[in-house]
Design brief:
UDP-galactose 4-epimerase, domain 1; Rossmann fold; three-stranded mixed beta sheet; alpha/beta; 2 domains; globular; 9 helices; binds uridine-5'-diphosphate
């Protein structure tokens, strides 16, 4: 297949390109390089275009596209609270532009990056697809709006789609020259690794008064290559199944912020100094996935089911980042 990977210069998108290339697919990357990296585009040509400028998107469809993977998004929970309009504009209006362009070019398959943030504060220990969707930040709300749009587009235009709700993406394919590189970096694992290396502004733990086992937030960390693998499986799924589908992607194991810091200390062999800081706006206490549906329907089994090997791959990238 020829797959147009929108946002393929970014963290999850570049790993999806690697997985597509390994599986023998052809890749074209469409990216505005706002947060993505030119150096991460290694498995196909780059079309510099922006989903907020619809007139630029046709260039991505110059060759017949069989399916689109859509990773373009603003994705920081805290920033979405302080600048919601940017989030709705990019994540919702930008996606509408992309859908409209796909329709004009007769492309009817889409894998969409969604998020655990669509659920808001969990009302059960483990979150499956049926869990109520009640996002508590504009980031999650913007992704949930797109899920709804995809369901309507399936009914009206026959668009086939799979929304994959990532829990916490982590790790890297450092041996392939790609990994996580955000500026500023806001995510826990890279920030803990910076602190282990004696770099960065000092690690802060956002809140230790949550109703969790040690008071810090619990998250489900899933390796970015396992996420990429789910995208390949979603392509196969859409061949067989019309309609709009959603799957939760996580390992099903929750780790608190302090447990992640301890695991990073074990992996790196370095002390990780941190200070307790106020809660970050928009953070639910616990987000842990049930991925039973993805396992059953997509045949997806995460290869990295423990936190240490995930952190090891992130550490390999951190010590020798290619960009
Ligand atoms: N976190 C933290 N210090 C940091 C970065 C994150 O304490 O420097 C916490 C954050 O409040 C959340 C968890 O770590 O509870 C995971 O946050 P991250 O930004 O990595 O991912 P998110 O859950 O927002 O997608």
């Amino acid at each position: 297949m020829h797959v147009l990977v929108c946002g393929g210069a970014g963290y999850v998108g570049s790993h999806a390109c690697l997985a597509l290339a390994r599986a023998g697919h052809e890749v074209t990357v469409l990216d505005n390089l706002f947060a993505g990296h030119r150096e991460a585009v290694r498995w196909g040509p780059l079309v510099e275009a922006d989903i907020l400028r619809p007139e630029t998107l046709d260039a991505g469809f110059a060759r017949r596209v069989d399916a689109v993977m859509h990773f373009c998004a603003r994705s920081l929970v805290g920033e979405s609270v302080t600048d919601p309009v940017a989030y709705y504009q990019n994540n919702v209006a930008g996606t509408l532009n992309l859908l409209e362009t796909m329709r004009r070019h007769g492309v009817d398959r889409l894998v969409f990056s969604s998020t655990a943030a669509v659920f808001g504060n969990p009302v059960s220990d483990v979150i499956d697809e049926e869990h109520p969707k009640d996002p508590i930040n504009p980031y999650g709300a913007s992704k949930l709006m797109v899920e709804r749009i995809l369901a309507d587009a399936a009914a009206a235009y026959g668009l086939r789609s799979v929304a994959l709700r990532y829990f916490n993406a982590a790790g890297a394919a450092a041996d392939e020259g790609i990994g996580e590189s955000h500026e500023p970096e806001t995510h826990l694992i890279p920030n803990a690794l910076k602190a282990a290396a004696g770099a960065g502004a000092g690690l802060k733990v956002f809140g230790n008064d949550y109703p969790t086992r040690d008071g810090t937030c619990v998250r489900d960390y899933v390796h970015v290559l396992d996420l990429a693998d789910a995208h390949l499986r979603a392509l196969d799924w859409m061949d067989r199944e019309p309609g709009a589908h959603r799957f939760n992607l996580g390992n099903g194991n929750g780790f608190s912020v302090l447990e992640v810091i301890e695991a990073a200390r074990r992996v790196t062999g370095h002390d990780i100094p941190y200070e307790i800081a106020p809660r970050r706006a928009g953070d639910p206490p616990v987000l842990v996935a049930s991925s039973a549906l993805a396992r059953e329907k997509l045949g997806w089994t995460p290869k990295y089911d423990r936190i240490e090997p995930i952190i090891e791959t992130a550490w390999a990238w951190h010590r020798a980042p290619a960009f």
